[in-house]
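I'd like us to work through together how a protein chain folds, taking it slowly. To get us started, please write out a protein record for me. Go ahead whenever you are ready, and we will take it from there:
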Amino acid sequence: MTTTDATRLTGLDAALAETTDALFALQRPDGSWEGRLSASPGATADVLIAMHLADPVGCRDLIERGLAFLLRTQGADGGWGDDVDTEATLNGTALSVAALALIAPDAAAEQISRGWARVEQFGGAEAVRDVERCSLAVLVHFYLVLAGLMSNEGLLRVPIELALLPAPLRRKLTFAMPTAMAWGLMCAELLPAGRARAAINRAATPPAIAYLEGLVGFEGPDGGFVESPMMSANVCIGLTLAGLRPDIVRHCLKYFRATIKPEGAWAVTRDLEVDATNFITAGMQHVGLGADPRVAKAVRWIRAAQRDEDFIWTGAPPGGWGWGLPSGWPNSGNTGDAVIAIAGDGHDVRDEQVRRGAQWLLDQQNYDGSWSCFAQVGRLATMDPSFAMVGKARSPKVLYGPCAVMSAEAVSALGLSGMCPPGDPRLTAAYRWFAKVQHPDGGIDNKWYLGRTAGTGSVLRALADVGLAGSPVARRCISWLRLTQNSDGGWGDALGPGRSTVEETAMAMLGLCAAGVDPAEAMPSRGAGWLVEHRGPDHLWRPSLLGVYFLELLYRHDHTANGYALQALARYRELVRRGGTTSGAFARPPWTATPDPGKTV
């Protein structure tokens, strides 16, 4: 080891000690981490409208707090973004204006006027009606009609006949489906209908209600629809205006009270506690703290969060993990990360929970070798049903389709758990899909984060985890990351050229370290330096607005930043110690075969 390496390790050791201490201080008594999502003006406006329509008296205290949040977070340009102190968006601005105009038209008259002026700058009513410019056009237009700011000309009907679709198509709407069912019931009740339409409405109403009832049963008394205040608000509004199921409406109102944030606002979804605990636990294991009782408690919590029932709403089998409790939907990303964390605790597929989680991933693999988030996509179920809700197909913007990050998490889990040895045909199919979607310059898109860095770094890490660090796809990923490193040493294309973020820098570094790049090279050394230097006074990192929730709504998640950055620095330290090899107990578990690093598919 050179003097330079020793100096570098000393600095990394100190940084990791400070960061792990800070994270342990945030660990909850049950072993998990909260995973705080940013407050969303758009989600807050949606919830306010729901409470105002359903129970304005009983929810008066919550409504007042939410209105105060919107009033103090309006931007200097009159708009609202998807988060506070971020660039205004048409979705965030129009939703906030609608809530203020509906609930406090006199008290907030000046703010409404400024907000509507910002909507006009986005293109006004014409832009609101255009699903290409306003991704939440169905919601936004309707709320502005309720508030008296737009006419109902061009108002889109949400067709209740979605409840009659064959299950493979209905499942592809994934977490849009609860909104579709409730708003379909509302449209059936409120909008004019001829004889044929009335017959369709009568036929579709019972299965639509049964769908919502079933989800309430899955959620239990404390859950929300899709574990989301925003989706729960949509269900509450639809059923309230349809005059149906006041019991489900009360269920939603109870959920709003349970999920309000200290600042008086709501996030697009409940906090991502499973994500947070998975990410941080894996980071602690990479640091070398896997035997620490606090990490062992986190692993036990992850085990307890595994779902034991079929999830009929997406067709998923038992054995998966969702993003939060009690009712996050099982999905490929959380399941892959949970399997990785349990495997990092020293367990392979001989462990029943690891085996079930890995089998869940295999059962959910798409026909083309990829993975989507929630639902498996088969050869015959390729139609995009979202056109029925917005008047045209929006395949690039819906989230049921394959995702590089989700696929990468699944591949890593299957390899590190020992479920799929090198050369397994399921991994070969995944590799071929990565090769298919990789751009000629080596970058790879994904659906759940902005930009290409997240997809490219995640795929590189996954390929290295299954012994394909020397494959053509991996080499092109490395080349792309080399060419796109920013001048400050970080990575990031999500927020614009040259704007490095913690999440993207960490994901790039994870891929490079897993692939075994030379730690003495400037590229990984500068990336690690950027991460160390960009911690806050609390030794943790600040998240960026690059997570994609649904139809272009964005969010920030504190422990996506902290967990991935911790993993990246720990894996870089291991790379330095081993002189550029990645053969560690965690990076290459003893139960997996050691493949030829130069092998290609």
